[in-house]
Write a structure and sequence with these properties.
The chain is an alpha+beta fold. Helix content is about 30%, strand content about 30%. It is built from six helices and eight strands. The chain has an eight-stranded mixed β-sheet with strand order 4-3-2-1-5-6-7-8.
Amino acid sequence: MPLEIADPPTQAREVVRARLSQLAHSNAFRTPGLRRASPDTLAMSTPHRVALLPLERIRRGLSLRAAVQKKGWRFLIHGDDRIVAAVETTVRRGHRFSHLNEGPFVAGTERAIRLAEASAPIKRGRFVPALLAVPALHLTALWLQDLEDTADRLIAMAPTPPEFRAFRVVSDAQFVAALLKAAARTARAPGRRGADTVG
């Protein structure tokens, strides 16, 4: 079964559409993929929530669903029949445009979604994608949230910390185990305080 796509707030969708239209018609894109794309072909797809996991919340017994901070929404941007960028919104007195990017996690998201849709456990269930970011560990993952149970799956995207293998579908328990190791290593790093963040 294909991944189910979340229905974002109308305001989030509208601010993205308006910003894209404004930038396209004023030739104001600063990234090469969007500059090369024909403005008339630009479209957005695959809306998904963005979730942030602070280092201090990574502890033994961690529940990702309980520990993350939900942020805005993220959309993939297509141009000339290919994914060229991603755009994010933030929530400050309503939904606002945040930023556009064409970094490695744009192509990484597309690759991770294809892997997810080919994974047997995900084919058998109902999952919705989200983006999980752990800034302190320089880690970004596609988070596949189980709509019928709590058997979430995650796919870390390259580049990853050494505790993770990029583009591999893992259970949330496997992902959390790697998180604990990465967080402990980061806490022990010279010059970093807060070695008690993992306990």
